[in-house]
Amino acid sequence: MSKALIIVDVQNDFCEGGSLAVQGGAAVAAAISEYLDANQQQYDHIVATQDWHIEPGDHFSETPDMVDSWPPHCRARTKGAEIHEDLDPEFIQAYFRKGQYTAAYSGFEGVLAPEDDVPSGDLKAGQAVTEVLDEDAIGLDDWLQSHDVEDVVVVGLATDYCVRATALDAVQAGYNTTVIAELTAGITEDPEEVFEELEAAGVEVARP
């Protein structure tokens, strides 16, 4: 049995100064780094997810309702899609990218990024993304299973969207799932309702 930490979407566009910033996003990035420094030995595997949008349809809108449609964000190979600088990547073993052509809130919709793919973030506004999806790329669930993971801990952004969706998919897939509340930040000012929903679904929420 092994244990994995899943760091969800701690990207520039979801932190202060980004196109879809979550208040406290940068602080969460730094807090996760501090947590990793002190606790990385507790985990057999540490992975991260990234929103990686190419043409996600009506997930993007110039007049977003901020429920099902959003301002353009985390476009593949742009600075906004990069991992925030306050999140130290030293211990991250693999990255899973999601939402190329769909909304994709859950990290379990992501596929493994090539090990040698280091995004430069230099795509200019209006430029087309020339990226071909690898149909044989392994998904997060298959990767975790192949590494005999049974316990997962979920942290990152945003509490009420991608963290929530990832944790719900994890418990549904049969993993013992924990969310560390203080290592998340949400769009909602009061995430307690989200935490209660997660607990009702079988997720353990570790509160301060």
Report on this structure.
- Strand 5, helix 3 and strand 6 form a beta-alpha-beta unit.
- It is built from 4 helices and 7 strands, in the order E-H-E-E-E-H-E-H-E-H-E.
- It is globular and about 45 Å long.
- With 208 residues, it is of the alpha/beta class.
- It has a 7-stranded mixed sheet.
- 22% of the residues lie in helices and 21% in strands.
- About 6% of the residues have low confidence.
Give the secondary structure arrangement, pairings included.
Layout: E1 2-8, H1 25-39, E2 45-51, E3 94-98, E4 111-112, H2 140-146, E5 149-157, H3 159-172, E6 176-185, H4 192-200, E7 204-206
Parallel strand pairs: 1-2, 1-5, 2-3, 5-6, 6-7
Antiparallel strand pairs: 3-4
Radius of gyration, in Å, reads 16 Å
Order of the strands making up the biggest sheet: 4-3-2-1-5-6-7
Contiguous low-pLDDT stretches (5 residues minimum) are: 119-130
Elements, N to C (H/E): EHEEEHEHEHE
Helix content: 10-25%
> How far do the termini sit from each other?
27 Å
**Beta-strand segment tally:** 7
Biggest sheet, in brief? Answer: 7 strands, mixed
Q: Shape from CA axes?
A: globular
Contiguous helical run count: 4
Class based on secondary structure composition and strand pairing: alpha/beta
* Percentage of residues in strands: 15-25%
Residue-averaged pLDDT: 91
Task: Briefly say what this structure is.
With 208 residues, the chain is an alpha/beta fold.
